Amino acid sequence: MIAATIDIGTNTTLALLADGDGSDLKVLKDQQTPNRLGESMREDNEISAHAIAMNVDLLGEIMRDYRRYGAEDFAVCGTSALRRARNRDEFVSAVRDVFDLQVDILSGTDEAALTFAGAVSGKEIYPHEKIGVIDLGGGSTEVIEGQGLHAGQSCSLDMGAVYLTNEYFMTEEIPSVKTIERLRLDVRERLIQLLNSLRDGVYPWLLVGGTAVTLSMLKQGLRRYDADRIRGSQLTLKDIKPLCNSFIGKHPEELQALPGMPLSRGKYILAGTLLMIELFDALQIEQAEVSERGLRHGLWLMKFAKRGIA
Fold first, then answer.
1. Per residue in 4-38, is it b (16+ CB within 10 Å) or e — as a string?
2. For a designed S-S bond to 296, which of 7, 77, 131, 182 qualifies (C-beta 3.0 to 4.6 A apart)?
3. Percent of the chain, pLDDT > 70?
4. What domains appear along the chain, each with residue ranges and CATH number?
């Protein structure tokens, strides 16, 4: 069955078109489009009417395009931005009225389980092999421990690249050293409290999400997204820290102009990279593998391959 899953994130809408069976899926098309949901959130945690209309239009464009490629069915979910939004029901109703389609707003726990399932799909993993997954997103970060293809305990951290940027960097065009250090210290304190239960084991780690993919692209000198080059690439602190240092002192427009920087990522890459460094330190990670898969793949397997996600 050819079907599509659409993950409406805080900064990006990710859309997967795939065919497959119960064991795995075959990717036919996979696209990422900036949606600016997190950027449009007002202080009262409401999404502007313009942003709702723009994102409903974006969904329509994706669905029309994917139907041309044979999509028979769609599953749509929302994550951190829609969890936070006081008027999320307005967005859900708009999508239902226009497309007769339900948007499932995922809890942090469900987001973690689906992300884990998607990240490990397609990999050769023994049933009792332990593995960890980190999904550093725009609005939240999921840290999941699992065994084989099944997720275990997880933490959904209420911080991501977009929200950290909005919280710490909005008053300065170029963040000062003092502001950067304040972000680091605050993140470190929050990670100690939330990740303490996940520090007992040392696992191979998988990284998913826009920050990890962007860092892999910049490390490799990729000018455009290439799933085959992203898949299985490695990141260490020795890779990430020099990249982070190169971001400091630059205007977001300079960062956006870097060769290979994905659209609308330059503004958020510094905060995302600082958070990634703190996660590596808190979890004592020496090296992690970057995956091009994620929540949208897990959602596809659950909805269309009828795979149990636990």
1. bbbbbbbbbbbbbbbbbeeeebebbebebebbbbb
2. 7
3. 95
4. 3-108 (3.30.420.40), 126-290 (3.30.420.150)
